[in-house]
Structure formats: structure tokens, C-alpha cells
Amino acid sequence: MAPLFNESWHLRAACRGPETHLFFAPSRFERRDERARRERRAKEVCARCSVRDECLMQAMSTSEPFGIWGGQTESERRRVHLAAAEAAKLTPVPFSV
Ligand code: SF4
């Protein structure tokens, strides 16, 4: 059985290494300005990542609840999911005669 995802892209992730901590909220309290700074720095790493599309696709398809993936925070991905669900409700059902 083929794996659901080809995860070889992980090996080319720009976030591998010492900057990994930028991508997830710390276990201690994080002030709003600290969070904004951390997320901005993480997104800068994502902006130069060669596997950004694969990363975002995996996070979206698995509804990854935590962290920055493909340059998007969890709340940004959630908004995309909600917008897609809303759009799906508005899409007319195909009708054939
Ligand atoms: S897009 Fe961002 S989170 Fe995803 S692999 Fe690249 S650097 Fe890491």
C-alpha cells in the first residue's frame, strides 16, 4: 500500500535545524508581541523554502491544528478551511437530465 504522503520533501525543509522552535508556540506563556515576532521570523524561513507547497498541502489535508506550515499559521489555515466549507455549501449540485 502506498503511503498517504510522500514525505521525502521533509528532507528539503528550510526549517530543519536550529530554527525549528520558531514554528510552534512555546510551552510557556507567550506575549502577543513575542508571538507576532516568532511567527514573522518563521514565515521568513517559509518564504525561502523550496517545499512550501508540499508542506502547506499536507497541513491542510490533515487539518494540522498546530504550528506554522507552508507559511501559514493555524488560524490562517482554519480560515481557509472555513471559507472552503462555506463555498462548498454555495456550490450547486450538478444536475443531469
Ligand atoms: S514551508 Fe515552512 S514549515 Fe514548511 S517545510 Fe518549509 S520552512 Fe518548514
Structural write-up:
The chain is mainly α and 97 residues long. It has one domain. The protein is built from three helices and no strands. The protein is globular, with a radius of gyration of 17 Å.
Bound molecules: iron/sulfur cluster
Q: Could you say which structural class the secondary elements and strand pairing correspond to?
A: mainly alpha
Total domains: 1
Radius of gyration: 17 Å
Strand content: under 5%
Give the overall average pLDDT.
Answer: 91
Shape call: globular
Tally of separate helices: 3
SSE succession: HHH
Major sheet size, sense and barrel closure: none
The count of β-strands is 0
Helix content: 40-55%
Low-confidence stretches: none
Assembly annotation: single chain
- How far apart the termini lie comes to 39 Å
Overview in brief:
The protein is mainly α and 97 residues long.
List the helices and strands and how they pair.
Layout: H1 32-47, H2 52-61, H3 74-90
The site of iron/sulfur cluster has 14 residues, from helix 1 and helix 2.
What tags apply to this protein structure?
single chain; 97 residues; mainly alpha; 3 helices; 44% helix; binds iron/sulfur cluster
